[in-house]
Amino acid sequence: MKLEGKKAIWSEYQKEIADDRYFYVRSCIRQNFFPGSEVAFLRIMKDVLKKDIYEHPCHTTCSGIGYHGDVVPVETTMTVVARQFAIMTEAGYTNYVPSCITSFGLYTEILETWHHFPEIKERVQENLRRATGREFEIPENLAHASDIIFKFRKEIATQAKYRLVNKYTGEPLKVVDHIGCHYAKMFPSKGVGGAEYPYVLAGMVEEWGGQVIDYPERRHCCGFGFRQYLVQANRGFSVACSREKFESMAPFRPDMIITNCPGCPMFLDRWQYVIGEMEGKTYGPNGQGIPVFTYEEVAGLVLGFDPWDLGLQMHQTSCEPVLDKIGIEYDPEEKFTLNKTLAKAKKGKIFV
Amino acid sequence: MDKHVIIIGGGIAGLEAGSKLSGQGYKVSLYEKSNRTGGHLNDWYKLFPDRRNSSEVIEYFKKIVSDSGLKIFQDTSIERIKENGNGFSIYSDKGEEVEADVIVIATGFDLFKSSRKEEYGYGIYDNVISSSDLEAMFRAGEVVRSDGKHPKRTGFVHCVGSRDEKVGNLYCSKLCCVTAVKQAIEVKELDPDAKVYCFYMDMRMGGAYYEELYREAQEEWGISFIRGKVSEVGETIDNNLIVKVEDTLLGRPLKLELDMLVLMAGMEMSEPGEKLAKASFLKTGENKFFASADHHFGSNLSSIKGVFLAGTCTMPMNITETISHARAVVPDVIDYLEKKG
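Output (C-alpha cells, whole complex):
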C-alpha cells in the first residue's frame, strides 16, 4: 500500500469546518449505546478547546432513522429538519454540528435538494410556518462532530496525556478506522478525505500516535444498515456483515477499532460477543475481542479522562487490552461499581 | 510554395500530415512538447489486431520524416494561436512567436489518469496497474507483481474513464476493449496456466479483425469475460487484491482474489490541447476534444478557418484511423492555401 497515493486523494477532499460557535444536536441512540461519548465531546469542546458550543433542550430526532427505515416520508423528514434549523436560527447560531452520521448525511442530502430544487425548500418553509410558526435559515457551515475533532486533532495532541502507542513495544497501535456509511458515500466532497479513503478518523489516529491499517472490507457496512437490524428477520444478515469485516481485518492484527457513527461501534462491539457465543471465535489475541471505540472516547482517553467516566464499562468487548497497551491508569474495581464516577457526577465534575 | 505550415504535435498524426505536406513542397515546421516524436506509440509494445511490433511502425515514421525534410522542434509547447490578418502567429512556452499561413493541430490524447477512479486503488495498491504499465512489462519481457512474483490470477477492468458519467466522460474510447483482449492473450502466452478475467460493460469489437481476436481469446486461451463493472478493490495482507464485481449476466455479485489488476485507461483530450483550445478560442465538443466544423464533411476543419485538425485530438481513434485522418488533412490544407493565393 502506497500512502502517497492516499495523501494525493486526501488533498483533493478538503472541506470547510467552522472555527467556533457551534450549534450541537445529539443522536437519538448514542446516549443509550455509549452514553459517555457525547458528554465527552461537549467537555472537550468547552473545557479543553474553549469553544462556544450550544445545545438546545428542544431539539429532536432528525427522523433519519425512520427515513432510512422507510417509515417516515421525506417531506416529513424535511420539515423536522427545517424545525431543527429554526431552533438554531432562534438561538443565534449558524454552524450546525450533528453528533450522528446519518443525521449529517440527511442534512447534507436535504441541503443539496433545496439547493437544486428551491421550490421544495419553499414548500417545506410553508409547512413549518403553518405547523409551528417558525422561520429558519440555512446553516452557514455544516460539519459532523468528528470533523470538528479532526480539525482540532493537533490541539488535542498537544494537551494529550497518552499516545496511541504500545508501551511494551514502542510501536504505534494498529487501528482500524471505520467510517459510517452516511458520512461521505452519498456526497464524497462533504467528507474529509472523500468517500473511498476517508481521512477524518485516520487523521486523528495519525496525530495521536497510532497507525491506520487498510484491509479489504474497510468500506463494508458495520452490520447495522438500518433494515438489516431493525427488521428482525434480517438480523442474521446484520451479524454476517459484521463477521465479514472481522474476518477481513483479523489477519492485520488490529489493536482497536475507531468509529464515527452511532450504530457502528454498537454493532462492531456487540456482534463480536454474539459471534463468540455462536461460533466460539474471537478476533483478538488470547481469546479476547478487538476493542471498539467512538472517536470521542479515543480523544478522551488520550486526554487522560478516566475510562469509566467515559462509559467504557458499557462496551461488551472488553477495552482493557488497549488501556493496558497504552498504559492508561484505571481502577478495575471501579468499572462496575462506579462509586467514584457517581460521586464526581453528583458534584458536576465528571471527567475532572 | 513558400507557404509556411505549422504542425502542433509530433505524434503519428502530426508526423504523417507534416511529412506529406513537406513532400508536397511546403515549408513545414513541427513543434513537439516532449523530447521525442511518436507519442503514445513509443509506450506500446505490440499492436492489435495483428500483434505487429510497434517498433516497425515507429521505423516507418522515422523514414518518412527523414525522406520529407520536415523540420522538427522538440521540447517546445505551443500555447496559443492568434490570427494576424494574413495568417497566424503561434506562441511557444519559450516566448517565441512564429508566423504561419496554416496551422495543423495534432495534439493527440492523454491516457485517462486511472487514479481518478479512486475505488480501483491505482497509485495506492501495489498490484493495480494501468494498460500502459502492462505494455512496459511486456516490452521488458516479464509481467511481475511488486513482490517479484509472476501473477497467476489477473483481471482486466474495461472502460476506466470511458462511458463514465462520474468522471465526466460519456463517450466510448473504442480501443480499450480490443487492447484488453490483446493484453489478456499476451498474459496467457507468458503463462498458459494463469487465470485471466476481463470485466466489461459491453464488448465493443468494431474494428477489422477485432471480433476474431475476441473469439481467439475465448476459444484458444480460455479467458473469462464477465459482464459487469468492478465496484471496489481492496488489498489483503499478502498484497493480493480483493475485487468486488457484479456479474450482470448471472445477476449476482462476485468477490475474487486476484494477484494483479489491469485498468484499461481510456482516451481524453490532451492537457496541452485543452489549454491551446482555451487560449486560442477554438471550439471543443461535449467530449472535450477539438470540435470539427462538420462531423461528416469537415472532420479536419476546426472552428477557425486556416486551422486544421488531425488525429486523436478530435476523438479516440486507432492507429489506422489516425493515419487516415492525418492524410485527409493534406488536401484540405493544400486547397485552403491555393484559394488563399
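Chain A touches chain B at residues 1-2, 4-6, 8-9, 194-197, 214-219, 248, 251-252 (CB under 8 Å).
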